[in-house]
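Appendix B. Chain record.
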Amino acid sequence: MSEKVVVTGGAGFIGHVFIKHLIENTKFEIISIDRLDYSGNLNRISDMMQNYDADTQSRVKIIHHDLKAEINNLVQSQIGDVKHIFHIAASSHVDRAIEDPMTFVQDNVVATCNLLNYARQINDLETFVYFSTDEVFGPALGGVKFKEWDRYNSTNPYSASKAGGEELAIAFHNTYDVPVIITHCMNVFGERQHPEKFIPNTVWKALNNEKIIIHADSTKSSPGSRHYVHVDDVADAVLFIINNKEKLKEIPDDQYGAKCKKINIASSFEMNNLEVAESISKYLGLVIDYELVDFHSTRPGHDLRYALDDSLIASMGWKPSKSTQEGLEQVTKWYSENQEWLKF
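Structure tokens predicted for this chain:
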């Protein structure tokens, strides 16, 4: 019998692509745990799985469960023995977090604690991967890229809740020896992303001749910027980490003796939001209507720039398989041909 892994949030954007990579690159049986909220959509999995035969499809089992509740004995019996846990499920929209912070505490802190409590009961668990975010470090000034163990500086309830979940994972590593690895990802984009996100939303507005709002500084002259990374590369990077855990163990503890391993997943190419919109315009062959807006001064909690230092994973031998521009062109064309994924 093949070994089993758990993927939380498997019906979400990153989760369903990660399941695809597990199918194509491992022999694992995959248990997807999802509560199917506004961002979880089983159509992602069914759409992605339609090209696989019945035997391959049978490797994926979906369990409906809200992680705000403990993983009780009944759910545990449905899961069975597990070798790896990939905790991707999270509430992730900054605007929603600003409007309703307690929901994000429940979804990203309490839910993580329930999953960690389950994980510490598994005798032969090999890995618990906690998917964190670049946003826990807060805004990065020009030229600054944050390393894995740099200080937190959460500027909104979303990033604070992810930092809280991250610290719980570290605590369970230190207290109960749960084999935790933490990843920080930059802005992830790709097919079947929730249409409220910037790239699919920009494609939709370009196709429908609607004005595109570009977040900028107080002078409305300098757009916000990000290091975008394609979701396929994120999935590939996590599998690379799992397959190279010995290399990761060889990396010395941080200067203060922290033992839990963290690793940044990013791209080296930075684009501002106007450049992204203009690239989408070029790939669609359409002229866009846009406006630079000082969103950050009028709506605290939004950061103009994020940046991660990815030298650690690069030193282990991993790099993205496609450039940001290649990925953006691919994704733009995919959305233009699959516009049902742009409606919400």
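Further analysis of this model is presented in Appendix C.
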